[in-house]
Amino acid sequence: MKDQAHTLRRIFEGGASSSFPQVLSVTSGKGGVGKTSIVVNMAIILAQKGKKVLVLDADLGLANVDVMLGLMPKHNIQHVLDGQCALEDILLEGPEGIKIIPASSGIQELSDLTNEQQLCLVNSLDYFDQHIDYMIIDTGAGISRNVMYFNTAAQRILVVCTPEPTSITDAYALIKVLRKQYGIKRFDLIVNNASSKIEGDQVARQLTLVCERFLGDVALEILGSIPTDKTISECIKGQKAFVGVHPTGEASIRLERVVNRLEQTSRNSNSGNLQFFLKRMLLNQSKGSSHAGYSISRSY
Ligand SMILES: Nc1ncnc2c1ncn2[C@@H]1O[C@H](COP(=O)(O)OP(=O)(O)OP(=O)(O)O)[C@@H](O)[C@H]1O
Ligand SMILES: [Mg+2]
Description:
It is a single chain. By secondary structure, the chain is an alpha/beta fold. The chain has a single domain, classed as 3-Layer(aba) Sandwich (Rossmann fold). The protein is 45% helix and 17% strand. It has helices at 2-11, 35-48, 65-68, 77-81, 87-90, 115-126, 145-153, 165-182, 197-215, 230-237, 242-245, 250-264, 274-286; strands at 22-28, 53-58, 92-93, 99-101, 134-141, 156-161, 186-194, 219-227. Strands 3-4-2-5-1-6-7-8 form an eight-stranded mixed β-sheet, sandwiched between helices. A hairpin with a 5-residue loop joins β3 and β4 (99-101). The longest helix is centred in the C-terminal third of the chain and has 19 residues, at 197-215. It starts with a helix and ends in a 14-residue tail after the last helix. Residues 28, 31-37, 59, 62, 141, 192-193, 226, 228-229, 232-233, 236, 251 line the site of adenosine-5'-triphosphate.
């Protein structure tokens, strides 16, 4: 492990980040709402603004950050946890120098690590504390223990939903579980696949009202909406980021606004730094599986 810090320093040449890294999770109740696409393109926009960004693919069921960018990892985080590789051996580089920690479908739940593996993960990620500005975590959909593990450890939880009623209901169900079971009160919201800005605003308002009415003290920060845009699926098919292929397209412009809003509303507290994130991850794990059986309740 001692050589790892040296190699990582070389990978992240360009010096230390000036402030604590922000740890963001991008999550959703319903699957297929555009999380991975948002994570990848948001990371690129932040990198274009000069930020150092690390993307952690934490969707262990359907890991595909690398696939979306046409990258082909030989190894993934499981190899690090098993002691077969060092973190620098698995790090992928994406557009604009973003760094990606790839996962793989069907690997061990990160919420279920042995003590040795916890230590390995903490040691591996620890280095990044002073060398990145953002860590963006692509969680899976739903309320599995693994998804909660990352959401509860992140500083900001970016909930993605679309105007489909099932997506809105499931976003609410996710927020409800995070509020009632884990005490989280602040969330960020991105509405994806909106037919118009008006529809995006309506969905955001609807979810805000339901949260206010039934959860009382939950605050939703509306980061904005992204339109339905066929170039997004074309870019995904071509394994390219849409902000790279169509930088002046409506989807790119709107996502840039979302990123601006994210930066403007940045919460300057140490609780977002990576050290804190790692501590919370371990704490969550030691709390065990008491929430594993919680099922989505669509009732308010
Ligand atoms: N704004 C959009 N306009 C049009 N199509 C979109 C948009 N956003 C996403 N899509 C489509 O939705 C599909 C799912 O996107 P993505 O894989 O990013 O979702 P996800 O939430 O990560 O899914 P999963 O829950 O399976 O991980 C993409 O293949 C793409 O075709
Ligand atoms: Mg995904």
